[in-house]
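Example for tutorial group B:
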C-alpha cells in the first residue's frame, strides 16, 4: 500500500459526509484545550493527562477518560462508513480507514484517550495464522493450532505485514497533536490463544482448557511464541507513536485464578518486563473481563494500571490494590442507556471511590451496540467538568489512606 500523505488523509476526512457527530466536533474541540489548561503549569505538562494518571502522578485536576470500543458500531458515522466498506478486515487494515474510524469519536466527543481502531487478532497473519471475520460467527481461524508441528510452523512476527498499524499511529499522533493520549493495544497471549486454539469464539473454552493437561508443552510453546510476538508488536506500536498500551486479557477471567497464575500471568509478565526494559516511559494497562478474583494477582504482573470490570466495586478494588498502582474503570456500560442524571451520579460515585490520584475513568467493558451517542457525549462532558479539589474538599487525607 502507498504510504498515505497528510494531504491524502485530509482529503479523505473532508470527504466524510456531514453528520451529527462531525457537526458536534466544532463545538467540542475548544473545550479540550480549556480542560487541559489547569495542568499546563506543572512539570510534565507536555504529557497527556491520561499518561500522567497512568503513572499515578499527584496533583492532576481531574481523572482522564476514554472508553473501550470507543470507535465503532454505536456511532452513526461509523455505520455509514461500514456500509461503504463492509469488510471488517478492510476497515481495520487500510490506513485511511483506520485513521478515519479512530478519529470519529475523537472529533465527536474529545475523549482524553484515543484508541487505535484495530483488533487483538490483527497481528495473527503476521505470525503465520490466517483468520477471517464472519458477520455471524465473529473471528474464524480455519486451522486451529493444536499440535506441536503447528506451533513449530509459527513465524516470528513480520512487522512489514502490519505497516498499516504503524502508519496509522504516526498519522494519528500528528492529528491529535498532544491534546489526548494515543493508545495502542494488544491481546494477552492467553486471550489470543483462545481464538487460535478454539478456531473462533467459544462459551466453554474446552479445547484450550483441556490442552493445559493433555498437551501442556504445545500450549506453552504457543503462548511463549505469542508473548514474544506481542512484545515486538507493542514496541513497534510505541515506536510508531502509541503513548500508552492496553493489554486485553479479556478471557483471562474464564480461568480459575490458580490456573490463570500458571497459563496467563507468566506470559503477561514476560511482555511487561521486556517493555519495561525497552520502553520504560510507556505505561501499561492490564484489563481482564471478570477480574474480581484476580486483582491482587494482576498487580503482580508489574503493569502500571489495573482495569476493573463493572462487577467489581471500585472502592473494594481500590482497597485491595492500594494507592501505589493506578486503576481504570469501571462504569457499567449499561448506565449509558439510563437517564443522563443517573449516569452523572454514577460517574461521580466511581470517581470518588477511586480517589484523587491514579484513576483513568472508563467503562467496565466496551461500549455496547446501540448506545446513544448523546450518552457518550454526556459521559465525556461530565468528566471534563470534574475537579478533584471540589470532589474531595476536606476529605483528601482520609480518602488517600492506603488500606491494602
Ligand atoms: O464496531 C464494530 O463494527 C465491530 C468491529 C469489530 C471489532 N472486532 C472491533 C474491535 C469486529 C467485527 C471484531 C472482530 C472480533 N474480534 C470479535 C467479534 C465481533 C466483536 O465486535 O466483538 C471478537 C470477539 C474479537 C476479539 C476481540 N477484539 C477481543 C476479545 C477484544 C478485546 C476487547 C474486548 O472487548 O474485550 C478485541 C479488541 C477490539 N475489537 C477493538 C475493536 C475496535 C479494540 C479495543 C477497543 O477499541 O477498546
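The residue assignment follows.
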Amino acid at each position: 500500500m502507498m504510504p498515505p500523505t497528510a494531504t491524502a488523509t485530509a482529503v479523505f476526512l473532508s470527504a466524510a459526509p456531514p453528520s451529527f457527530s462531525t457537526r458536534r466536533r466544532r463545538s467540542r474541540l475548544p473545550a479540550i484545550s480549556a480542560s487541559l489548561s489547569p495542568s499546563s503549569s506543572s512539570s510534565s505538562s507536555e504529557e497527556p493527562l491520561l499518561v500522567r494518571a497512568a503513572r499515578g502522578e499527584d496533583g492532576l485536576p481531574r481523572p482522564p477518560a476514554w472508553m473501550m470500543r470507543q470507535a465503532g458500531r454505536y456511532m452513526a458515522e461509523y455505520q455509514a462508513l461500514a456500509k461503504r466498506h463492509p469488510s471488517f478486515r478492510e476497515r481495520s487494515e487500510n490506513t485511511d480507514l483506520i485513521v478515519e474510524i479512530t478519529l470519529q469519536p475523537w472529533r465527536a466527543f474529545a475523549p482524553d484517550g484515543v484508541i487505535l481502531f484495530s483488533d487483538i487478532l490483527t497481528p495473527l497473519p503476521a505470525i503465520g495464522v490466517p483468520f477471517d471475520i464472519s458477520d455471524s460467527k465473529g473471528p474464524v481461524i480455519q486451522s486451529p493450532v493444536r499440535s506441536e508441528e503447528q506451533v513449530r510452523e509459527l513465524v516470528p512476527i513480520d512487522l512489514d505485514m502490519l505497516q498499516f498499524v504503524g502508519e496509522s499511529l504516526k498519522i494519528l499522533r500528528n492529528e491529535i497533536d498532544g491534546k489526548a493520549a494515543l493508545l495502542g493495544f494488544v491481546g494477552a497471549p492467553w486471550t489470543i490463544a483462545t481464538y487460535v486454539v478454539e478456531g473462533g469464539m467459544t462459551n466453554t473454552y474446552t479445547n484450550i482448557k483441556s490442552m493445559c493437561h493433555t498437551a501442556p508443552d504445545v500450549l506453552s510453546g504457543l503462548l511463549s511464541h505469542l508473548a514474544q510476538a506481542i512484545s515486538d508488536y507493542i514496541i513497534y506500536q510505541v515506536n510508531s507513536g502509541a503513548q500508552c498500551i492496553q493489554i486485553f486479557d479479556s478471557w483471562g477471567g474464564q480461568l480459575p485464578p490458580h490456573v490463570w497464575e500458571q497459563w496467563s500471568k507468566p506470559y503477561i509478565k514476560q511482555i511487561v518486563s521486556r517493555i519495561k526494559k525497552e520502553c520504560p516511559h510507556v505505561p501499561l494497562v492490564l484489563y481482564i473481563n471478570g477480574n474480581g478474583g484476580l486483582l491482587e494477582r494482576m498487580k503482580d504482573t508489574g503493569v502500571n494500571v489495573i482495569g476493573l470490570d463493572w462487577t467489581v466495586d471500585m472502592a473494594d478494588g481500590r482497597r485491595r490494590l492500594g494507592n501505589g498502582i493506578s486503576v481504570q474503570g469501571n462504569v457499567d456500560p449499561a448506565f449509558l442507556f439510563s437517564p443522563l442524571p443517573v449516569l452523572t451520579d454514577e460517574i461521580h460515585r466511581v470517581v470518588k471511590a477511586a480517589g484523587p490520584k491514579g484513576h483513568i475513568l472508563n467503562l467496565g467493558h466496551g461500549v455496547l451496540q446501540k448506545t446513544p451517542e448523546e450518552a457518550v457525549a454526556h459521559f465525556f462532558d461530565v468528566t471534563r467538568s470534574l475537579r478533584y479539589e471540589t470532589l474531595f474538599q476536606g476529605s483528601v487525607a482520609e480518602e488517600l489512606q492506603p488500606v491494602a
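Residues 68-73, 88, 115, 117-121, 133, 138-139, 185, 201, 248, 250, 289, 366 surround coproporphyrinogen III (CB under 6 Å). Compare this with the pattern of hydrophobic and polar residues in the output above.
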